[in-house]
């Protein structure tokens, strides 16, 4: 998505990215970025919380209006929860047993094969 | 947490934005994939200022979410990673509608969220509300879906121009891009 933001901007369309992966978006480099320090999948606000969602969008609009230049990141003040333990879980090898890692590899191989076949079919259709 | 940390009100050491690149790189190496992903990375970043105030601007929405596809397996809420639900071409939908878009095809945090509320990853309802109260001029007629699964070359050479053309067709002035 960062690539889309850059492309639009290069072609005269101002943009703001809403996201939860601060390092990945900033590594690419985008014009404007609203970072929510939430688990991946909640870039538009907390689930079932319209106020959180409204506040997150309003922050994006303010950043769209007021960013002084490229690489403007503004972090939402919202906290997922007081306890930040959730941050230690995502794809964290320290928290996975060898058996779990082996199972995940097997599962991922299956998904990779599905994606490969779909990709091939989509190319064939072009 | 030490006594000093507590006295000064410091947060826990690990309470920083998650370093996803390092986490994901180590994870897939441990799973046996020894060809680490190269994330897009640029030294310079383009910038275009808004041409007119937001309350006179037409705003387009771009998402990585996928249209729900019956028969393509569990797409949530709470679904495991589902590559069958991926899509490979830019699509557009009616911004005035009530689209059923899911994120089972991407790597969101399945332990701590379930993707049960579309409004947590697609701010379409809030964007329409912003138009209703005059915060923005209007919502562009279409929102656009961006594929996330092909090569970066495909994204840049095919998907990006496609999205730009669609945004221009709707005469949108700016875009909100939501990553998942």
Radius of gyration of chain B from CA coordinates: 19 Å
Number of strands of chain B: 7
The H-and-E topology of chain B, N to C, reads as HHEEEEHEEHE
Overall mean pLDDT of chain A stands at: 93
How many structural units, i.e. domains of chain B?
A: 2
The biggest sheet of chain A amounts to: 3 strands, parallel
What percent of residues of chain A adopt helix (DSSP H or I)? 40-55%
Question: What would you call the structural class of chain B?
Answer: alpha/beta
Q: For this entry, what is the oligomeric state of its chains? A: heterodimer
- Round the Cα radius of gyration of chain A to an integer and report it: 18 Å
SS strand fraction of chain B: 5-15%
Shape of chain B: globular
Q: Largest beta sheet of chain A: what is the strand line-up?
A: 1-2-3
Sheet with the most strands, sense and barrel status of chain B: 5 strands, mixed
Secondary-structure-derived class of chain A: mainly alpha
Number of strands of chain A: 3
Helical stretch tally of chain B: 4
Average residue-wise pLDDT of chain B: 93
**Helix-strand pattern of chain A:** HEHEHEH
State the low-pLDDT regions of chain B, or none: none
